[in-house]
Hints:
Blueprint: E1 2-6, E2 16-21, E3 35-38, E4 68-75, E5 80-87, H1 94-98, H2 100-103, E6 115-122, E7 126-128, E8 135-137, E9 152-153, H3 159-167, H4 182-189, E10 208-214, H5 237-248, H6 250-255, E11 257-262, H7 268-274, E12 276-278, E13 292-294, H8 300-309, E14 313-315, H9 321-329, E15 336-340, E16 352-355, E17 364-369, E18 372-381, E19 386-392
Parallel strand pairs: 5-6, 5-10, 10-11, 11-14
Antiparallel strand pairs: 1-2, 2-8, 3-4, 4-19, 6-9, 7-8, 12-13, 15-18, 16-19, 17-18
Amino acid sequence: xxxxxxxxxxxxxxxxxxxxxxxxxxxxxxxxxxxxxxxxxxxxxxxxxxxxxxxxxxxxxxxxxxxxxxxxxxxxxxxxxxxxxxxxxxxxxxxxxxxxxxxxxxxxxxxxxxxxxxxxxxxxxxxxxxxxxxxxxxxxxxxxxxxxxxxxxxxxxxxxxxxxxxxxxxxxxxxxxxxxxxxxxxxxxxxxxxxxxxxxxxxxxxxxxxxxxxxxxxxxxxxxxxxxxxxxxxxxxxxxxxxxxxxxxxxxxxxxxxxxxxxxxxxxxxxxxxxxxxxxxxxxxxxxxxxxxxxxxxxxxxxxxxxxxxxxxxxxxxxxxxxxxxxxxxxxxxxxxxxxxxxxxxxxxxxxxxxxxxxxxxxxxxxxxxxxxxxxxxxxxxxxxxxxxxxxxx
Length: 394
C-alpha cells in the first residue's frame, strides 16, 4: 500500500513531497451530508391526506406515542463542493490557452446553487534526484490573479474575472518533450504540508470533492509508453484514490468525481487538431523545418479515472468548456445518501421511509451496527429533497 508524506517543511510555492511505502493506513470517517431535522409536528399524518406540512387544524395534529419518532430530513439546499482544477500548461496546449477565457466563459455562473470553492494547479511535476523513496516537486496551488490567496470561492469579488485571469497561463516550451503528470499533480496537491491541513485548506469535511483535468495529452504524454517517461506509482489512478481515502476518509473517496476534458480516445478529428508542428513563436510551419513537436494524444488514463469515479469525459477541443461541465455540476453536490436514525428501530411497527413533494421514491436499505442505525439510499437524493421517517425506538 502506498502513501505520500512530506520530506520536510517547505512553503507551498516550493513544495517538495516524498513518496513512501507503508501499511496500516487508518481510514477516517467523513461527515454525513448536511441535513435539516424538523420536529414531528411539522409532518402531516399519512392517514389524513388533506393535511399539509405545518397545518395547525386540530384534525391534522400529529400524535406521537412515547418512543415513536416522526421526522422530516431535508437534503442541503446549497451543497458544498470543493474543486481542484489541474490544467495542462505544456506546449501542446498552446492553441487552447489562446482562447481559454472564452472556453470558460460563464464558468462561475454554472456553479450557481452550490457552495463552491476551487484551486488551480498545473500538470507540471518534477522528480527531485534519484532517492528512494522518490521525492517530487509539484501540485502547488497557483496564486489568484486579481485577488489574494490561492482559493477562489463564490464570495470572491469578481470571481469570474479572477478565475479567467488565473486559468489562462503561458505554456512551457523547449527542446525536451513536456511531461504532463495530471494524476501526480492532484496527488501532491491533496497532501498536507507540515503544520497545515491536507489539501492546503481546499478540502472541507462536509463538502464533495471534485477534480477537473484539462489536458490534450495522456499521463506522461502517452500513458507511460515512452522509454524514460514510464508511469511511476505517483502517476497511477490507484495511488490518487488511495491518497483521497487515507487523507479524508472512505466517504470522501467513495464520493469523489473526476471530470476530464481530454482528447477522447477515438476522436480523430480532435486528435488531428492537436497534432501540429510549430516554431518557437507558436506559429504553425511546414514539417521538416526546425521546430518543436507539439502533439496531443488520447487521454486513456484520464478517461479510465473519470469512468471509475462516475465523472464526465468531455472534449478538450470543445469551444466552450462551461457547456461541457454544466450538467456535471448537477451531480457533484453533497447530496443526501444516508440518514442516521435516533435509535435502532423496532421491527413492529416497521420503519417507514416516505419521499415528499412528489419526488419519486428511492430504494433504501436499513443498516444496523450495534446500537446505531442508518438508512442508506441506493442513489443520492438531489438537493432540497425531503424524506419522512417514521419508526419506534426499542
